[in-house]
Design a protein that fits this description.
Helix content is 0%, strand content 48%. By secondary structure, the protein is mostly beta strands. Strands 1-2-3-6-5-4 form a six-stranded antiparallel beta barrel. Strand 1 and strand 2 form a beta hairpin. It is globular and about 40 Å long. The chain starts with 16 loop residues before the first strand and ends with a strand. The model has no long low-confidence stretch (mean pLDDT 88).
């Protein structure tokens, strides 16, 4: 079972690469560009809600999927559900993906 990820697992990791494998077995890097705390909307949440924005290559569109990501800060790969948001207005050639944790 994957460990419960918290915002602390990602703070300080901005601008670093998280790597996923495509169904074809290719490696794809997603650059973490934003880590943001979100409002608590339920009593006694199991973790502080947060969201992540990743920049991925435009030719590796996952649309939405649970992706197994590896990163040097993880002791094992972590499964994260990500949704494609569209192309970044700030970073040319970047397809943005968001993961929300509640």
């Amino acid at each position: 079972m994957d460990k419960l990820l918290t915002i602390e697992n990602f703070q300080g990791q901005e601008q670093t690469a998280f790597t996923a494998q495509t169904e074809q077995g290719d490696s794809v890097d997603f650059i973490l560009t934003e880590v943001e705390a979100r409002p608590v909307r339920t009593p006694d949440p199991k973790r502080e809600p947060f969201s992540l924005i990743f920049c991925g290559p435009k030719n590796a569109q996952f649309k939405q999927a649970t992706v197994e990501l590896t990163h040097p800060s993880f002791d094992q790969p972590q499964r994260i559900f990500m949704v494609a948001l569209g192309f970044s207005k700030e970073i040319e050639g970047c397809l943005e993906y968001q993961a929300i944790f509640s």
